[in-house]
Each structure stands twice: as C-alpha cells, then as structure tokens.
Write a structure and sequence with these properties.
The complex is a heterodimer of chains A (151) and B (182). Chain A is mainly α and 151 residues long. Chain A is built from 5 helices and no strands. In chain A, helix 1 runs antiparallel to helix 2 and helix 2 runs parallel beside helix 5. Chain A is elongated and about 55 Å long. In chain A, 42% of the residues are buried. Chain B is built from 8 helices and no strands. The interface between A and B is large, with 57 and 42 residues.
Chain lengths: 151, 182
C-alpha cells in the first residue's frame, strides 16, 4: 500500500467525506448568515464549520486539514474574530453607547440585509468559535503524534 | 409530555452507565446519549436555537473525547469504597430533596408563564427595536450583548489555555536540554 492510502480511514469514508464536506461547510455558512432570521447564529454555525474541517482531518489522517488551515492560522483567525466583535461594540460608542445598534433602520425585517450590526456580530462570533474549536482539535492531535513518536 | 419523561429517564440511565462502565470508549458513547437526548428535549420544548447549539457542541465534545481516550493507555486505578464520601453524598442528596420539597410545595408557575415579567418585553418589541426576526438572536446580540461578550471571553480564555498548556514547542526544548546534559 502506498503512503497515501494508509493514512486516515477506508476508501468508503474518504469518498463520502469528499462528497459531503462541501455541503457541511455550506450549511454552516447558511446558519451564520441567516442567524438573525431563522434559528441558529454565530456560535452554532461556527461549530458546524469547525466540524467540516474536523471531518476532513478524521477521514484523511492527521495533517489533511492542517494543510488548508494551519494551527498558526487558527490562532490568527480567532483573534481576528474577537477584535472584530470588540470593534463593532466600540463603534457603537460613537452613536449612543457600547453595543449600540448603529446600523439599525437599514432594510425591512426578514430580509438578509437587515437587523443592523447583528449579522456582522454573528460573523465575528463564528470566526472566533470555529477557529478556536478547530485549534483545540489540532492541538490534541499534534500532542498525540508527539507522544507516539516518543514511544 | 410522556416523551419528555422517557427522554429524561434515558438521560439519567446514560449518565449512570457513563459513570459505572469500565471501558472508557463505552463511557464516552453513554455521555453522547445524554447530550443527544438533551438536544431532543430542547426541540420538544420549542427552543430550536438551543437544540442546534447543543447538538453540534455535543458532537465536537464526543469527537474530542474519543480522540483523547481511544489510542492512549490511561492509567486506571481502582479505589476502594470511601465511607466518608458516601456519607456526604447521601447527606447532600437528602438536603437537596428537603430544599426541593420546601421550595416547590407552594407550586411552580405553569410552563410558558415565567414569574419575571421582563421576558415579555422582548417578543413584543424585538422586531421593531432591532429588525431581527429571530428574537433569540436579537436578545443575545443586542439587548444582552454584554453577556455574549463575557461568553466569548470565556471561550477565548479556554482556547488560549489549551494552546498554552498543550504546546509542543517548550516540551521539545526541554527534551533537547536533557539530552545535552546526558
């Protein structure tokens, strides 16, 4: 067997993952962008996106998803989400107070572009949560590999 | 409401199995039963936001637990019965039952009609006030955004903690130092 094949799980799992991982990613993005219209939001959508990357990692072996989204980048994206959330909160101080919804009357309720800064806050939280959880997952795997090399 | 009690019984059974079973992987699967049953309960109580968050977080938690327990020899230590711990457990269980009887003897408020009237403000005013048709989203990101900021800080601290404690850079350096000494 080549080196490509003995990493990760069986061919069936790899094929199904290749077909479904894009749909999982799309579902996560839908949950985030429609967080102000339907059930869901930044937290759940961010976790679903992290799950798509975790799915890749489990099916194709240790470093498949880490090539797309390295451990260093997870830290950067997580910090970016936190800074974006705080920036939105601080921008509100110019208009009336911390976390003021300064974009509010911008479209009818029920449309995709509505509800002021709530969709933007959803995106910030999803970046933070998704990158953070995937970073935790990568850290655990790297630690595992390090321990098995030591034995 | 009968399905609610069935699911609650399933959750209690899963929790007891998770504690009692000796195989770690079986314990993780039993914990997963508790989480999935809790998610269905949230759905039955008409809280789809919480149900969605619960089910995805539960899946991540179960995956992390399986990865953490599967291929690693964890030292298992069997300890004997501790009479003091058992006594304290029975004592606190009795205290909790007495407190519940005293508190609930006057009757709970019926489901869907909370004692606090402030929660009625949000469904009536959320769409006009924020423009979001998902009232839960308008509460957690507009009216109660401070709470979300605190929750985000908690998660940030947890991730920083994991990345710091489990980093491999410092450990490798330590090992090199030991080799140099030898």
């Amino acid at each position: 067997m080549s080196k490509e094949h003995d990493r990760g799980m069986s061919v069936i799992v790899k094929t199904v993952t290749r077909l479904t991982v894009g749909l999982i990613l799309l579902y996560g993005i839908y949950i985030i962008l429609h967080g102000h219209l339907t059930p869901g939001g930044g937290f759940a959508g961010g976790v679903i996106i992290a799950l798509a990357f975790i799915n890749l990692d489990l099916a194709f072996g240790g470093s498949a998803a880490a090539k797309i989204f390295s451990k260093r980048n997870t830290g950067l994206v997580e910090a970016l989400g936190a800074v974006m959330f705080l920036t939105l909160a601080l921008l509100g101080m110019k208009y009336g107070g911390f976390f003021d919804n300064f974009l509010h009357p911008d479209g009818n309720p029920g449309q995709l572009v509505s509800a002021g800064i709530i969709p933007l806050e959803n995106i910030a939280i999803s970046l933070k949560v998704g990158a953070g959880l995937f970073g935790i997952f990568l850290t655990l795997i790297v630690l595992q590999k390090f321990e098995s090399e030591k034995k | 409401m009968i399905e609610l009690y069935v699911l609650l019984g399933l959750m209690i059974a899963g929790a007891i199995i998770a504690i009692e079973v000796r195989n770690l992987l079986s314990a993780v699967v039993a914990v997963g039963i508790v989480g999935l049953a809790l998610s269905i309960i949230f759905l039955l109580l008409k809280a789809p936001d919480v149900a969605l968050t619960q089910i995805v977080v539960e899946i991540v938690a179960v995956i992390l637990l399986i990865r953490a327990t599967l291929h690693r020899e964890i030292a298992q230590k069997s300890c004997g019965t501790r009479p003091f711990g058992a006594f304290m457990g029975i004592l606190f269980l009795g205290l909790a039952v007495v407190a519940a009887i005293v508190t609930f003897s006057s009757g709970l408020s019926p489901f869907g009609e909370p004692l606090m009237t402030v929660s009625r403000f949000y469904p009536l005013n959320a769409i006009a006030g924020t423009g979001a048709t998902n009232v839960v989203s308008s509460i957690i990101l507009d009216y109660r955004a401070y709470d979300t900021l605190g929750e985000a800080t908690v998660l940030f601290t947890a991730v920083i903690g994991v990345l710091t404690v489990m980093r491999s850079v410092g450990k490798k350096k330590e090992e090199d130092l030991q080799e140099n000494h030898e």
